[in-house]
């Protein structure tokens, strides 16, 4: 749909800017899934960033593996959850995991109109995908032009803004590539 949008100059298709993957294959390596990993580059060339939740276990995915969060694509943003106290309890990797956001003890909807507290990386990746949408929706003439003339460059610009705007936490310095947690205020001012 994004390729059609790009080719028709917005007359057809859809202006898709992000995907969210809250599933994957634990403890596997990118070399075992070259087609899957290359898919993110193809989406990126069309202007789509891809956000993936990493494993819900406290392991170093750089060593143990995790698909798709260890896929080596500039158009992939791998995310993990942090608690409101700055604790990282799930998958991490200085090389592969890019960013964190709140993902512990979150109030969410439950069965029969009730609410419940839940935790997991599947709460984080949609937050990051939504942040990408907000960055594209910001009043930035440069980004608006770039998204029409060079969709891949626009996606990489948004990625830089997102990751450069994080709030740095010392506890994340050796665990997460950006060293920080999502901060939309800083990212939107990038």
Pick out its properties.
190 residues; 7 helices; 19% strand; alpha/beta; two-stranded antiparallel ribbon; four-stranded parallel β-sheet
Q: How would you describe the overall organization of this protein?
A:
With 190 residues, this protein is an alpha/beta fold. It has 7 helices and 10 strands. The protein has helices at 2-7, 34-45, 61-64, 124-137, 141-149, 151-164, 184-188; strands at residues 18-21, 25-26, 49-53, 66-67, 76-82, 99-102, 106-109, 115-118, 167-168, 180-181. Helix 4 (124-137) crosses helix 6 (151-164) and helix 5 crosses helix 6. The longest helix is centred in the C-terminal third of the chain and has 14 residues, at 124-137. The model has no long low-confidence stretch (mean pLDDT 96).
Share of residues in helices: 25-40%
Beta percentage is: 15-25%
Tell me the series of helices and strands, N- to C-terminal: HEEHEHEEEEEHHHEEH
Mean pLDDT: 96
Instruction: State the end-to-end distance.
Output: 28 Å
What is the molecular shape? globular
Number of helices: 7
Strand order of the largest sheet: 1-3-5-6
Task: From the alpha carbons, calculate the radius of gyration and give it in angstroms.
Answer: 17 Å
Number of strands: 10
Stretches where pLDDT falls below 50 for ≥5 residues? none
Question: What does the largest sheet look like?
Answer: 4 strands, parallel
At a glance:
This protein has 190 residues and is an alpha/beta fold.
